[in-house]
Amino acid sequence: MGPFILQGQDMRGMRTDVRLNDRQVHSFDTGDMIFDPGVVIGEISKYNTLIPGDVVWLGTDDKPHNMKVGDVLEIEITGIGLLQNQVVAEAPER
User: Fold this and answer.
1) pLDDT tens for residues 22-38?
2) Which of the residues 17, 19, 59, 67 has the least number of beta carbons within 10 Å of its own beta carbon?
């Protein structure tokens, strides 16, 4: 998740590109997702109360790839920008 959240974006015409270690692993038209975000949120709200600030993750349109410590994952969405994160090891419990 990025440093900010955009509201009211029209996803038609946007493209989502996912890269793992500089290799493109997913690419799809954001407006053509398998499940429409509005429909998903409508279904969730039938059973759970959603309040401002809640986040609903919708995933990608393809199978996930295994990642390991040190890998770099980039997600770029047309008109929004680029999110880049490096995979790190979980800190041991104290």
Assistant:
1) 999 998 888 787 788 88
2) 59
Residue 74 confidence class, pLDDT cut points 50, 70, 90 = very high
Domain positions in the chain are 15-86
pLDDT in tens, 49-68: 999 888 888 876 677 788 99
H/E stretch holding 45 reads helix 37-47
SS3 80: coil
From start to end of 32-94, where are the E strands?
Answer: 72-77, 81-86
Q: Is 31 helix (H, G, I), strand (E, B) or coil?
A: helix
Looking at the whole model, is its pTM more than 0.85?
no
**In terms of Cα–Cα distance, which of 15, 11, 13, 12 is closest to 75?**
15
21's torsion region: left (phi>0), alpha (psi -120 to 50) or beta?
left
